[in-house]
Amino acid sequence: AMGILGVWWRLVCTPTVHGARGATGAWPLCTHCTRSKAARFSSAPSRAIDSSVNRILVIRGRAIGDFILPLPAIKLLRGAYPAARLEILGYQHIIALAERRFYADAVLSIEYAALASFFARNASLPEGLREYFAGFDLIVSYLFDPDGTFVANLKRCGSARLITGPAKVGLRMHATLELAQPLQELDLLLRDSAPRIFPNEQD
């Protein structure tokens, strides 16, 4: 875990993420530096909590930097649905950054062999995975899916609500804001756009 956190330190614990120097000339400290509690950064929901959302799945592939960018959006979901169980589907060595570290209650590797059928049109989907995806009240996918095959197969599972976000970000706005924009379908607006990692005691 320390190797992963070392990579995160270079990516996130930098002036480019935390902004300009303060009046004292010092760079603002990140969460890792201050060891603040994760709850301090929970985003307050912009509307009444929907108690029907009990399980949430966020899907995000790509490299470590690409995984860190949607963390503010995931934090926004955490704040909006504090009682919900949230899971993340992605590359195991990267999503370990979030597993039981505020963001994810559990994770699943996208390299799980049985998932390959979800990337094939009209494929026979494993019953276990059909039941797994159907068990979520909300799925937010940032997966690269140019022909919509993966999303179409998710819909075949009968998931209650599916929101798709961009796999790649453009230049028209800050990446964290663009990745949080699809959550406006849930009346959620991002106010804190700084990505943060919350190490656990083992780290």
Would you mind describing this structure in some detail?
By secondary structure, this protein is of the alpha/beta class. It is 30% helix and 11% strand. The chain is built from nine helices and five strands, in the order αααβααβαβαβαβα. It has helices spanning 2-12, 15-18, 31-34, 64-68, 71-80, 92-95, 127-134, 149-156, 175-180; strands at 55-59, 85-90, 106-109, 138-141, 162-164. It has a five-stranded parallel β-sheet. Helix 8 (149-156) links the parallel strand 4 (138-141) and strand 5 (162-164). The longest helix is centred in the first third of the chain and has 11 residues, at 2-12. The protein is globular and about 40 Å long.
Structural class: alpha/beta
* Total DSSP E strands: 5
Shape: globular
Query: Counting H and I runs of at least 4 residues, what is the number of helices?
Result: 9
Q: Largest beta sheet: what is the strand line-up?
A: 3-2-1-4-5
* Major sheet size, sense and barrel closure: 5 strands, parallel
- Rounded to the nearest angstrom, the distance between the terminal CA atoms is 6 Å
Query: Which spans of ≥5 residues are poorly predicted at pLDDT below 50?
Result: 4-46
Helicity, as a percent range: 25-40%
In short:
With 203 residues, the protein is an alpha/beta fold.
List the helices and strands and how they pair.
Layout: H1 2-12, H2 15-18, H3 31-34, E1 55-59, H4 64-68, H5 71-80, E2 85-90, H6 92-95, E3 106-109, H7 127-134, E4 138-141, H8 149-156, E5 162-164, H9 175-180
Parallel strand pairs: 1-2, 1-4, 2-3, 4-5
